[in-house]
């Protein structure tokens, strides 16, 4: 039973169509990674689903057509993390996180005490304890991403759209972040769409990978099920000749590693 | 946790000191002026002293206090909504519209009330025009509004120049120039009621809408994905802030610097943008205008334009705050 | 404009000084203000008295001793800004860019020689009454926007301009057009202007008649009003009720001559100054008189809620200076009539109200040919 159904989605900027006829589904409690070369339409896909960009085709979340929802109703269903958050004025970290509750509050209603407590707890969870009164703009880029992640988590939305949420995080935080995301989708029976730069991270942390090439869907990978050779051929179309190897960590868990083959 | 209590104590301290200072300054302003007033004279019910105190002195002091507060808050709102530290209500043509409106009133209507009404209409008219133009262009992130504001601003300036050309240099032109320079002179109980009520209503609305104003500080896409109807909300908030500003400057003429400076002052004292920062912007604005007006009415044998003093008091204040902040960090 | 600018510079300086003096006591600051502003006013005044001295020593003045003296051309005169101007022959075409000098040309009987006047002539009734042809003359603009080209194209043999138009005067002089700059801002300067213009145009006879009329009426007022209590008078300017003339201005002399005392005597500005309602109530004048061209009426003042405690308003003593022929509150040749009018209001026992009506009719008939 799928939670998110994308059918025949085409989108672009102005007259230029960037995405052509994309269809896929996601089940509840899963993370779907989106892989593709720069400019292949990953961000466009997220923006189209988030209904920021006009598009053809339809996006169905449970029984709701996302296109038919108002901004406020949509925000109640779906959380979105842009590549770079546009906060330019000085705000406290806590105030930034509390913005995540905006769709749940009426015009003049301030956030409740419970919301504030939950926001603080979420900040601690993502790795920003005791920073709630700090100035968002003075955080490092990685901390900012964690803060925006917390903002997205507090809303408890059914669908999360994350545009390169790991780009400024170092190795340890990347894996941690994906774990937080895993905890979140499991707890809320939600599904997450994540565009990722790092294919190894994607292979090891996502349930499914949607591979985009020049705006079309070139395939779907289930890292746990898809044979390595098929993964290699699909990913080679994006990254050039690559090689995927299975490695085991010390406790015996299997990891996939992708390395670039020397080009001749 | 310790850090946050410390900073919240500091904020409380700043707000209390500011409010007390503004109150004291306003009360002090009740005792500065041309007409010899004594406390005993006012209390004992000397009808002339009482009349001067109520209709002129106190009204002027209160307009100074509220007017400065409104300008400070409006400045804060504009800087937040446009995400631009240099934004002020002028950016969408409020002051040029008000000037053109006032010039029209001076030329073709009679009575100071008519000039106030005409200035108000001018300010509001040019802002509504700017917002309408902006909604046609559908520019992203309020940029359309800024562009439309510039267009309307030049249009209003042209109208103003044309009206000045028509004006008689001996009388109307002098009045227009004096109006543009801005002064709290001529304010009396009979002319302020409507404007003051409007300003109080608008400023209260802005405080109630504080959370929404902050949502507008995000990029449009990000705001929309958090459920903000950015276009409508921006129009609503700009309109309220403009109404408040127009309410003040239609009575006083242009008052420079307060909208720009007060929010910066507040942000230097309270590090982040909070509800208390907006309130402190108002307090600082109120202090600046009250102080400026006390000087404007007492320094020379005649009434001077208040903007001279708001700038002269304001600029060193801003420099002081910057230096102090630099030292602290 | 220039004067205003000067005023503003002075104000900014004062502001700056005062800021540094904020800690000082109030009397100290008032003192500062006074000194600075006086310094500003003194500058032009000094140059004018210089000009007067120089004018006395010009060859033209030598012949002035005889009452029916003729000007001998070429004549060199010093105008009211201290410029020396040589006029080669009796000017047959004159342009005046200032309503006061235009009025003077009429009073000196030169209306047939005037070939161009200032703009907006249509709103001055005196032209309609005394010289309807003036309304058809080309206009050379206003003090704000002087039309140099039109002026030059008329090839006038003499141009009279207000002091504000110094730059235009310079340009015209370079075209070999003689320009007299006038600055009638006080009773003395008015008389000086009358002498200057009459010397330049060979109309000293008429000027003498005009000057002696003014002197005669002045003496009469002084005699009739000797010993009366000066009434406190507030003069409200054209632009607003709250702009007024300080003692340095022509209008203040007009009030004093009529047996009044300028309520704004503490003002040090040399131009119309802005004051507050409070100030007006503190002065509490017995009379409020409005400038001739004021846009508001005595009724507006009487109905002003803010002034209901003011003595002048309580007693209904609010009047507008007559402007039915010309603005009598400005230093025009007939300015003395305003004093006669005001004396009739302030001191009806000494000067009858009819006197103004009679004198006005006589004056304008004698000097302007208005019947």
Provide a short characterization of the protein structure.
The complex is a heterotrimer of chains A (264), B (329) and C (371). Chain B has helices at residues 2-29, 39-43, 47-81, 94-108, 112-137, 143-166, 172-181, 189-208, 210-215, 220-225, 230-252, 258-269, 275-298, 306-328. Chain B is an all-alpha fold and 329 residues long.
Write the layout of secondary structure elements.
The complex is a heterotrimer of chains A (264), B (329) and C (371).
Chain A: E1 4-13, E2 16-26, E3 30-36, H1 42-49, E4 55-61, E5 64-65, H2 71-77, E6 78-81, H3 93-98, H4 113-126, H5 141-154, E7 159-163, H6 171-188, E8 191-195, H7 199-205, E9 208-213, E10 216-221, H8 228-239, E11 242-248, E12 254-260
Parallel strand pairs in A: 3-8, 3-9, 6-7, 7-8
Antiparallel strand pairs in A: 1-2, 1-4, 4-5, 9-10, 11-12
Helix pairs in contact in A: 4-5
Chain B: H1 2-29, H2 39-43, H3 47-81, H4 94-108, H5 112-137, H6 143-166, H7 172-181, H8 189-208, H9 210-215, H10 220-225, H11 230-252, H12 258-269, H13 275-298, H14 306-328
Helix pairs in contact in B: 1-3, 1-13, 3-8, 3-11, 3-12, 3-13, 4-5, 4-6, 4-7, 4-11, 5-6, 5-11, 8-11, 12-13, 12-14, 13-14
Chain C: H1 2-20, H2 26-56, H3 59-62, E1 75-78, E2 84-87, E3 94-96, H4 99-107, E4 114-116, H5 125-130, H6 148-153, E5 158-162, H7 166-174, E6 179-182, H8 187-201, H9 204-224, E7 231-236, E8 243-244, H10 250-257, E9 260-262, E10 273-274, H11 277-283, E11 287-290, H12 298-302, H13 311-314, E12 318-320, H14 336-346, H15 353-368
Helix pairs in contact in C: 1-2, 8-9, 9-14, 10-14, 14-15
Describe the overall structure.
The complex is a heterotrimer of chains A (264), B (329) and C (371). Chain A is an alpha/beta fold. Chain A has one domain: P-loop containing nucleotide triphosphate hydrolases (Rossmann fold, 3-Layer(aba) Sandwich). In chain A, helix 6 links the parallel strand 7 and strand 8. With 329 residues, chain B is mostly helical. Chain B has a single domain, classed as ABC transporter involved in vitamin B12 uptake, BtuC. In chain B, 78% of the residues lie in helices and 0% in strands. In chain B, helix 3 runs parallel beside helix 8, helix 4 packs antiparallel against helix 7 and helix 4 crosses helix 11. The two termini of chain B are 21 Å apart. The mean pLDDT of chain B is 87. By secondary structure, chain C is an alpha/beta fold. Chain C has 2 domains: 161 residues, Rossmann fold (3-Layer(aba) Sandwich); 143 residues, Rossmann fold. In chain C, helix 7 links the parallel strand 5 and strand 6. About 14% of the residues of chain C have low confidence. Chains in contact: A-B, B-C. At the B-C interface, helix 3, helix 7, helix 13 and helix 14 of B face helix 1, helix 2, strand 10 and helix 11 of C. Chain A: Keywords: ATP-binding, Nucleotide-binding. Chain A: This is ABC transporter ATP-binding protein. Chain A: InterPro entries: AAA+_ATPase, ABC_transporter-like_ATP-bd, P-loop_NTPase. Chain A: One of its GO terms (molecular function) is ATP hydrolysis activity. Chain C: Keywords: Signal. Chain C: This is ABC transporter substrate-binding protein.
